[in-house]
Every structure is written in structure tokens, then in C-alpha cells.
Amino acid sequence: MQTVYFPTAKPTLAITTGSDAAVCGDCKCRPIVGGWCYLNHMQLNQQHQKFMRGGYPRWDELSKFERRHVNRLREVFISRLGKWGDPASDKSVIPFMTEYGRCLGYTHQWDKPQHQDLQPSCMASVDDPLEYGRANDMGWRTFRTKLESDPLLSNEIICPYPKVQCVDCGMCDGKDSKFKKNIAVNAHGVRYKVNRYKEYRTQLELPVV
After folding, report:
1. 98 pairs with which residues across the strands?
2. In angstroms, rounded to a whole number, what is the distance separating the alpha carbons of residues 206 and 209?
3. Which of 51, 62, 76, 192 is the most exposed place for a label (fewest CB within 10 A)?
4. CA distance 136 to 54
5. For 82-132, what is each residue's pLDDT tens digit?
6. What is the 3-state secondary structure (H, E, C) of 89-137?
7. Which pTM was predicted?
């Protein structure tokens, strides 16, 4: 199970107009700023349409019978707080989602003072060694995008996906995790998005092999 944070505009329109900032903040991976966001936003349009029609019930409007079914979350692994959108965009739902057990999350808003309270449940999503060091110094566990040719940094391991599925791994559950290592993942997906990450690295004058 994954959660989605929707803006008012449909996803494919939001990413071209910049209104995705409502749920993504100033994330450098946003398409409008030339980022390398991995998500296929077209796939979210149908869900967004249903959401805007009121097709998904509000928690405070659920009957007692329906709430019993919501309690099945105790049996469900939340593999992503924010399949699209940053958990920092609506922190009010996090206590409800995390009280039932393991719940993985990532935030690009880790450097904002007002979002340090996400450390227990979210990984700092970082995109270069400099951010890695800063986030660690601030107390975050990190999930770092890197090039395949880049070495792992201190106290860092490579993400085992897809050999190990997230439900069987569960390492990305923030500072309160029993796991202490930081996680790194090689830039992946369609070629033009990987190239955008390489361009980002080049602009920082960091080595690109």
C-alpha cells in the first residue's frame, strides 16, 4: 500500500504548470525545473479524477463499521508515504499511518527547520555526497541517489531492490528503524531522466564517470 498526495490540478497538468509544488515543495526532482522524478504521472490521472469527485471517503466521515475495515492497516505494510508528493506536504496523516507498524517514507524537505519532526519516520532523500553529509550531521538517515560508478559512502549500503522487495526489507523507515545504515540507489529509469541527474551532478562540479 502507498499513499498519494494530490494537488488540485491533475498530475500531468500540475507537473507542467508548477502547481505540483503544493505537494512536492521545492524538490529539485520536479519535471518543471528539469528534474529526474521517476514517477509516471499519467498513471495517476485516473486516481486523481476519482479523488476530486469524492470517490475516496474522508477519515472523519467514515462510519464505525467502515473504520473497522480501516483497522486492517494493522495487517498492511505501508511501502511508501508519498508515492507522489512529499510527506511534509501533509504531516497530519502520518501519526495515523505509522501507528500501525512499519511505514516507509522519503522527504526532500529534510533541510527545512519545520520538518525535522519527520526524522523518526522518513529518510532524507539526498542527491549528492554534500547533501549526504549535511543530512547526517542534522541527524537524518539518508536515501541517496548516485551514479552506478560512484562508490558507496561511509555507513552506506546499496538498496537491495528488486532482489529484495520493500515489504521484506523495510530498512527505509527513518531514524526510529532498527537499521542504522544509510541507503543508496543507482539512478535508474528512462534514459533521459538518468541524463538529467548526470547534468545535475555536472553543475555541482562533482565527478561524473
Report:
1. none
2. 10
3. 192
4. 41
5. 889 999 999 988 887 777 666 889 999 999 999 999 999 999 999 999 999
6. HCHHHHHHHHCCCCEEEEECCCCCHHHHHHCCCCEEEECCHHHHHHHHH
7. 0.88
